[in-house]
Amino acid sequence: MPLQYNEYYNEQTGLTVGLKKLLFSKQTAYQLVEVYETDTWGNLMTIDGMVMLSEKDEFVYHEMISHIALFTHPNPERILIIGGGDGGTAREVMKHSSVKHVDMVEIDKAVVEASKLHFPGVGDFENPKLQILYEDGIAFIKNGSEPYDVIIIDGSDPVGPAEGLFEKEFYRYCFDALAADGVLTTQTESPWVNSYHPSIKKVFTALGDLFPISKMYTCAIPLYPAGLWSMGIASKKENPLSGSTTDRISDAGELLKTLRYYNPAIHSASFALPTFVKNIIEEK
Ligand code: SPD
Fold first, then answer.
1. What domains lie within the chain, and their CATH numbers?
2. Would the pTM count as exceeding 0.85?
3. Catalytic positions
4. CA 147 from centroid of its chain's CA atoms
């Protein structure tokens, strides 16, 4: 029997990845963090048996959770990332020349440690703009700080320590922590997995109640359950589909050359939702 990683998202249905060997395994106070060398996807990080990233497909998630929001904000300088310990989101955010400071609040040091050891191309941990705080993101945001221009919720699935990242109360704290033209993005799971629908609905109801503008968008991530992933953007002022957002993207030629998934057409197209996906957030 070959060595395999299996993540079941519905009874016996799931994802299978061929493994070469286990590289890292740490049970922390919060979760089990593991890294495997795979036969196809480079190194793969899992948390409590759920895929977080692979070397080969991480660019999709990290570009899409970062650039939609960063281009929507007219001048993003102060950024907060909740979670994101592998460093991929911070790497993308810091490609924007307007960004002066990034706080990354990661609850679990082991995620950063595993990434530094086994994902050398993912994090830009030595960048002086990045400050890593090993704290609970929910407590951090609740306690208040100087306002942020953009907040990115790069957490895990809605089980264990990340459960609170899908609650309205948490998004209210985020709203309060954002400047008057602030923008937020968050990862909101796979629309194909029925057990996630209540969490998806809860997040979009909260964003719609709190922010004048909120939208879902999607991207294709092969190693996440069923390959289709949803994300949410919420904004106090600027619309992600406005002409000024489009102009900012068109002016960012050099940055766009560094990307492999996100481009101007993907920015707009990712907001076109299949009807069954729209129904998850619109049905009463
Ligand atoms: N089931 C996958 C959910 C993963 C969301 N976060 C991924 C972390 C990558 N920075």
1. 4-52 (2.30.140.10), 58-282 (3.40.50.150)
2. yes
3. 154
4. 20
